[in-house]
């Protein structure tokens, strides 16, 4: 069994490279592919954006169509699936999922595909394990972490920054988006190895975990 996991940024890849083996074990293969942003699904479901920009949703129709053609050539005994992981941000979950399914339904043949959406952002999956965060960052602010509700729409990465970054999210934002991305990757590298995937409190992470475990049998 092989899983291709598409994520919208480097921090997501760093986290999932660590977490996926904890979920599916070592008897299967996987590859996490990071893009340079989430973008949006093309209105006509045809990818026309510059492929070199590597924006996930802009490229998704062409990506899934390509996987469909590739998977169709595999022998029946070989199972492969695509897992698309992206942030909900400020979108409506029901409508966003319908848009993603429309992309998949436009493929012929269709690759086996799962859509897993982090609510509100990927940092929600780290915040699903407060023990891991406090272990990775012993000086983390309890008053910030204690008020977090799993998968709440609250400015998730900013809340995590307020808990673990000196000066909080305000200070981090002053350094620009590249510094924010670098810090997000650092959180993934420090927290993910300490996470208990079976005890994670994030419902959207639990959904991701259950889809991988079901596919892995």
Task: Summarize the SSE layout with pairings.
Elements: E1 2-7, H1 10-24, E2 29-34, H2 56-72, E3 80-87, H3 93-105, E4 113-118, H4 123-127, H5 130-136, H6 142-145, H7 156-164, H8 168-174, H9 177-191, H10 203-216
Parallel strand pairs: 1-2, 1-3, 3-4
Structural class: alpha/beta
Total beta strands: 4
Mean pLDDT: 95
Compute the separation of the termini in Å.
10 Å
SSE string, helices as H and strands as E: EHEHEHEHHHHHHH
Give start-end ranges of low-pLDDT stretches: none
Can you tell me the number of structural domains? Answer: 2
Biggest sheet, spatial arrangement of strands: 2-1-3-4
> How many distinct helices?
10
| Helix content, binned percent | 40-55%
User: Based on the structure given, which CATH architecture of the largest domain is correct?
Assistant: 3-Layer(aba) Sandwich
CATH topology descriptor of the largest domain = Rossmann fold
Q: Tell me, what's the shape?
A: globular
Gyration radius over CA = 18 Å
Describe the largest sheet: 4 strands, parallel
CATH class of the largest domain: Alpha Beta
Strand content: 5-15%
Give an overview in words.
It is globular, with a radius of gyration of 18 Å. The chain has helices spanning 10-24, 56-72, 93-105, 123-127, 130-136, 142-145, 156-164, 168-174, 177-191, 203-216, and strands at 2-7, 29-34, 80-87, 113-118. It is built from 10 helices and 4 strands, in the order E-H-E-H-E-H-E-H-H-H-H-H-H-H. Helix 7 (156-164) packs across helix 8 (168-174). A 4-stranded parallel sheet has the order 2-1-3-4, with helices on both faces. Strand 3 (80-87), helix 3 (93-105) and strand 4 (113-118) form a beta-alpha-beta unit.
